[in-house]
């Protein structure tokens, strides 16, 4: 206590010191004293109130404890009295055992009397019930059946209470009411028939379906009541519980499964489109059934049955099972596509589960997949494998058909612009388009895979196409009279290369997303190179055809016959122009290159005639005449190829300028200027070789051996590379 007082004094000193830190605060001492007095009075008042409240609570608790003690003593006395009375009544209870037995017998007899009328009328009720079932009056029949079962169960229960071990009497009662179970089974059979046709019944006679549901509900209530009584008495009447509600859903489930399986009307042998028809019938039936269930059946069943949700699950499960069965069959490629399109797209589309008439009860986002991802993956693998084999076979067949066309006696068809073509590109890319359109119906991923497959097979196909074009050329060279339209079909082959290029680009642009195009292009071998090679070899074959006809006339160039007035160049020009009238049916990219190549080769052959020293001029007059002829013929060739190249916007006059430059060397009359003229030629054409210069001087015919040697040695100090155009 003293310690508390000291702490209080110390605290007070601190507070006073805190309030009187400045001299001017001494004037407020009285004010501080009054404020502290008020705080003290307030604290004391709250303390007194708290103590008073505690005292009141203690007083109340003591009063309640006193009352409880009195109650306990009263209860103790009452229990003592009850115990005394119970001991005194034991003998009395024993003396009333006979009365108890009499009460039990009376209860049984009362039950027998109560059911006496029913007992005697059992055969009649059975007949009436049977008639009502046959007439379809199921509610009345069920009412009578309930009366029969109630009488039987009541008697059997009383017998069970009196003597549960007496099986003879129980068997007697059961046999007397033996027809009751048969009636129950017959009624159930009729109810199941109605339920099996519930989707039809609900539209024609919904009252009948409602009656069936009411009967099932009654039986469910009886089952629940009997199971509750079983917990108390362990007695269960025969045939219980019936579980008709559970059986009802089982019947509906079997009905749905049978309906799905029964939609297959055809087989692959009888109809190639059997699966498409089968799936379409399933779609129509399921959609119609669910719409009926949503709009009509839900009105015939209690809400807690959740009939629409249950039917939806049944249809989904039946469909899943059926799709698994179909997937396990040995399906063809088009059948796999039909199945996957239906499963992955049609099922959740507005044509089926996403139909507005099923909303909002059916949410397609919550539906489980009809086929597992593994099964879908296996089907896709099978489809890709089959499609690969089919595309290879289709491409081989298309090429064989095209090869037969090459042998025809008639010219190939021309497109709208007049260019020769065969049907091969159209057939190939129509096939690719069809497969890509089908794949696009299933998924974007499959579409990309099919596109990659098409491009891969196209690459292999073009290699075979190149080989066949080469064989076509070789066969023709064995007998140039056959095939009759060789040139025209070779033109068509060249044009096909351009068509293939354009079709490949179009195919990628149409079926490939822009962000994937680069990766696909990088992963795919370049087909442009193969197509350019085929076209180049085709153009070479046609030019070879031209130069085979020109061979004799090219051989006359720079000969004495030529100098004396040969018309070889005239024939060459006429022949080339005639061929190029056919070559006009070649598409521009290749025709342009082919014209330039023909120009180059004609000039090369002309220069080769010079370098082969077929003639040696004997006089200045011959040199002048020969040189002037060369210039005229160069201009003639220039005019021809300008005409052939018109519209290409390319100038290839430099080829003919070479002939004119050589003619200038031949035409030179002053031998002393020969070195200067030759050096000018070499500077203009730095790939001129020593043997070329020697041949040129030999054609002039006036250069001595020493002059040739001097000119060549003087020129060796500059670049002396080979003249490519005259060395082949």
Automatic annotation (TrEMBL):
GO BP annotations, alphabetical order: exocytosis; protein transport
First and last residue of the signal peptide: none
Domain of life of the organism encoding this protein: Eukaryota
Keywords from the named record: Acetylation, Cell projection, Cytoplasm, Exocytosis, Golgi apparatus, Protein transport, Transport
Compartments where found: Cell projection, Growth cone; Cytoplasm, Perinuclear region; Golgi apparatus; Midbody
Assembly and interaction partners: The exocyst complex is composed of EXOC1, EXOC2, EXOC3, EXOC4, EXOC5, EXOC6, EXOC7 and EXOC8. Interacts with EXOC3L1. Interacts with BIRC6/bruce. Interacts with MYRIP. Interacts with SLC6A9.
Family recorded in the similarity comment: Belongs to the SEC6 family.
Descriptive protein name: Exocyst complex component 3
UniProt lineage: Eukaryota, Metazoa, Chordata, Craniata, Vertebrata
Gene name of the encoded protein: EXOC3
């Amino acid at each position: 206590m003293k310690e508390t007082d000291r702490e209080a004094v110390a605290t007070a000193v601190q507070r006073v010191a805190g309030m009187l830190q400045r001299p001017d605060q001494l004037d407020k001492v009285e004010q501080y004293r009054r404020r502290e007095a008020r705080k003290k009075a307030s604290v004391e008042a709250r303390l007194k109130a708290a103590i008073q409240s505690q005292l009141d609570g203690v007083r109340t608790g003591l009063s309640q404890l006193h009352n409880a003690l009195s109650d306990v003593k009263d209860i103790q006395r009452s229990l003592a009295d009850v115990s005394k009375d119970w001991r005194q009544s034991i003998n009395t209870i024993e003396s009333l055992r006979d009365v108890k037995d009499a009460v039990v017998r009376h209860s049984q007899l009362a039950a027998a009397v109560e059911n006496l009328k029913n007992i005697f009328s059992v055969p009649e009720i059975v007949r009436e019930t049977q008639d009502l079932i046959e007439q379809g009056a199921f509610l009345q029949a069920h009412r009578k059946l309930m009366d029969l079962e109630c009488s039987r169960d009541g008697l059997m229960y009383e017998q069970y209470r009196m003597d549960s071990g007496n099986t003879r009497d129980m068997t007697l009662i059961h046999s007397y009411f033996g027809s009751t179970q048969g009636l129950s089974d017959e009624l159930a059979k009729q109810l199941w028939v109605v339920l099996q046709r519930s989707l039809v019944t609900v539209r024609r006679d919904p009252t009948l379906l409602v009656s069936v549901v009411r009967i099932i509900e009654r039986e469910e209530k009886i089952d629940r009541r009997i199971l509750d009584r079983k917990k108390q008495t362990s007695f269960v009447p025969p045939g219980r519980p019936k579980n008709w509600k559970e059986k009802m859903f089982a019947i509906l489930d079997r009905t749905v499964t049978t309906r799905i399986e029964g939609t297959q009307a055809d087989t692959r042998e009888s109809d190639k489109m059997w699966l498409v028809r089968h799936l379409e019938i399933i779609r129509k039936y399921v959609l119609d059934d669910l719409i009926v269930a949503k709009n009509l059946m839900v009105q015939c069943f209690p809400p807690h049955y959740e009939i629409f949700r249950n039917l939806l699950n049944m249809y989904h499960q039946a469909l899943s099972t059926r799709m698994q069965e179909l997937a396990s069959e040995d399906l063809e490629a088009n059948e796999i596509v039909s199945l996957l399109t239906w499963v992955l797209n049609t099922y959740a589309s507005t044509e089926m589960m996403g139909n507005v008439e099923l909303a909002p009860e059916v949410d397609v986002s919550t539906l489980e997949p009809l086929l597992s991802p593994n099964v879908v993956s296996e089907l896709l693998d099978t489809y890709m494998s089959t499609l690969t084999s089919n595309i290879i076979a289709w491409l081989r067949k298309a090429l064989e058909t095209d090869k037969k066309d090459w042998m025809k006696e008639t010219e190939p068809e021309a497109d709208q612009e007049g260019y020769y073509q065969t049907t091969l590109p159209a057939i190939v890319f129509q096939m690719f388009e069809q497969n890509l359109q089908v794949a696009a119906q299933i998924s974007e991923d499959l579409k990309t895979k099919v596109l990659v497959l098409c491009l891969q097979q196209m690459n292999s196909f073009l290699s075979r196409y190149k080989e066949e074009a080469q064989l076509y050329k070789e066969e023709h060279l064995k007998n140039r009279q056959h095939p009759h339209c060789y040139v025209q079909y070779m033109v068509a082959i060249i044009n096909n290369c351009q068509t293939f290029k354009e079709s490949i680009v179009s195919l990628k642009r149409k079926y490939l997303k822009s962000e994937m195009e680069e990766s696909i292009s990088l992963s795919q071998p370049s087909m442009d190179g193969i197509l350019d090679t085929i076209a180049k070899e085709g153009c070479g074959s046609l030019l070879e055809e031209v130069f085979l006809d020109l061979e004799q006339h090219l051989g006359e160039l720079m000969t004495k016959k030529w100098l004396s007035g040969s018309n070889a160049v005239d024939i060459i020009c006429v022949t080339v122009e005639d061929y190029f009238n056919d070559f006009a049916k070649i598409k521009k990219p290749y025709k342009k290159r082919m014209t330039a190549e023909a120009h180059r080769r004609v000039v090369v052959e002309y220069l080769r005639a010079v370098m082969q020293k077929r003639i040696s001029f004997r006089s200045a007059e011959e040199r002048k005449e020969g040189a002037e002829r060369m210039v005229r013929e160069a201009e003639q060739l220039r005019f021809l190829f300008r005409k052939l190249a018109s519209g290409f916007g390319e100038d290839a006059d430099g080829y003919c300028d070479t002939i004119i430059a050589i003619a200038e060397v031949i035409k030179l009359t002053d031998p002393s200027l020969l070195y200067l003229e030759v050096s000018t030629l070499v500077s203009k054409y730095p790939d001129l070789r020593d043997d070329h210069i020697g041949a040129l001087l030999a054609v002039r015919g006036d250069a001595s051996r020493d002059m040739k040697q001097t000119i060549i040695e003087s020129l060796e100090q500059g670049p002396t590379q080979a003249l490519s155009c005259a060395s082949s």
